[in-house]
Amino acid sequence: MSKGTAVITGAANGIGQAYAQRLAADGFDIAVADVVDASTTKALIEATGRKFFSALVDVTSPESTLQFAADVAANLPPVVALVNNAGIYPWKSFADTDYALWRKVLSVNLDGAFLMSKAFIPGMKERNLGRIVNVASSTLWLNVPDMSAYIASKGGVIGLTRALASEFGASGITANAIAPGLTNR
Question: How far is CA 94 from CA 88, 91, 126, in A?
Answer without folding.
Answer: 16, 10, 43
